[in-house]
Amino acid sequence: MTFRPILAACALSIGLTLPAIADDDPAIAARQGQFKLLALNFGVMGGMAQGRMEYDAEAAQTAADNLYHLTRVDQMVLWPEGTDSDSVDGTRANISIWEDLDDFVEKFGALQMAAESLQDVAGDGLDEMRAGVGALGQTCQACHEAHRDEAS
Amino acid sequence: MRRGLAISLGIVLLVIGAGLWWLSAPDPLDTDSLAWMEGDAEAGRDIFLAAGCGSCHMAPGSDVDPLLLTGGREFPSDFGTFIAPNISPDPDHGIGDWSQAEFINATMRGISPDGRHYYPAFPYTSYVRAEVQDMADLYAYMMSLPADATPSRAHDLGFPFNIRRGVGLWKALFLRDDWVITGDLTEDEERGRYLAEALSHCAECHTPRSALGALDHDQWLLGAPNPSGRGRIPAIAGEGFDWTAFDISAYLDTGFTPDFDVVGGTMAAVVNNLHKLSSSERDAIAAYILRAR
Across-strand partners of A20? Predict the structure, then answer.
């Protein structure tokens, strides 16, 4: 009889001290999936830009088209409050995203613009695509530098 | 009898104290030999980039000028929070009135112009292996950068770490100027070792530290907790690290991992610097990293 309140207290204190498990929130899985898709398509062109594989105009254009559309996914549902790395496990999304949302939105906007520019040139030749790849990479880096934690 | 004991104890303590005081004394380089050296500012730019001075000493926040070394970035640690000082050539708040010899003693020995120890958050622990000529070049370059009059802020450290003299004991125990990776090295690996171990100080973040803050040479580059925040600084050697020389060199140039994730965090500034060096320098670092594995 007496240990039920103790158990309850334990459960409560665990609940208070441990962050929630990130997998509980589908938004986190969804945005991580989005970034995996971005990397996969970016990698097709990045691999060509670095000479890991031969430039192929058609494959580059397809990847660039994908990137364009991926960056048009509405971000509103992917970043609910309370899904930062201070609040939950399993995410590298720093609280600064929510604390300085304007900056995050601006940096995501830069990615969207770079994806559009890359889409315009990806099929035009290796040098044209390479410049676009570099510019898009810069937008990724700017946001990762400001708003992404180290991996654990 | 009891009085005799007290006196002997007093003498023993005095001797120990004197010994510690002697051990903890700053041990500067010979100033006369440093004064005559001619620095080449243009060569110093590459040293500045490889040594990553700006990564810690530029103003806080992103999108700031990496050549305006106002200081102010905070580096939390187990010992308290270190705050990077102003090292722009401002004569009052920066290093503008430092002589070349004073500068070299700061970077290679961790000693300030007024003879005090710097904390090893400042990686003189790596720069101790640098060529003196490179430091003279670096001095010439840094004196050509824009000045800024932002005052430096004091570190926020708890007792006993706030006693600077104690850093002298730490140096006596841990400051060493020999190479960590030894043996038969190719020319490229040797150049890479110079860049990685003396200038770019990769190990200062990528190697775990003991309770006293000394790098664990047995776990060289095997990754470490991130002292300034969440997550870990990744391993760049050991079992799980399977990057090729091409992968490493490309990453240091573009920030793209082999999976085309893109660099972030504190490494972004490192890539921004190394990207500006010649590709042979990045290839050399890659050769060293693979040799260190």
Answer: A88
Confidence at residue B81, expressed as pLDDT on a 0 to 100 scale: 96
* Domain residue spans of chain B: 28-174, 198-292
Q: Examine the pLDDT at A1 and tell me if it is beyond 50.
A: no
| Chain B contact set for A142 (CB, 8 A) | 62-63
The label of the residue with tokens 């590709």 reads: B279
Cross-chain residue pair B264–A46, CB shorter than 8 Å: no
Q: Which residue of B has its CA nearest to A35?
A: B261
Q: Say what the pLDDT of residue B126 is.
A: 98
Query: Minimal Cα–Cα distance from A145 to chain B, Å?
Result: 4
Half-sphere exposure of A106 (CA within 13 A, CB side): 7
Of A47, A141, A150, the CB nearest to B226: A150
Q: Which CATH superfamily is domain B28-174 in?
A: Cytochrome c-like domain (1.10.760.10)
pLDDT average, residue stretch A70-98? 95
Q: Is the peptide bond before B120 cis (omega within 30 degrees of 0)?
A: no
B265 closest CB neighbour out of A40, A134, A148:
A148
pLDDT at residue number A90? 92
Return the closest-CA partner of residue B148 out of B95, B187, B100, B199. B95
CATH superfamily of A27-147: Cytochrome c/b562 (1.20.120.10)
Are the beta carbons of B206 and B236 closer than 8 angstroms? yes
Taking an 8 Å cut-off on Cβ atoms, the answer to whether B231 and A151 are in contact is yes
Q: How far is B287 from chain A (nearest CA, A)?
A: 18
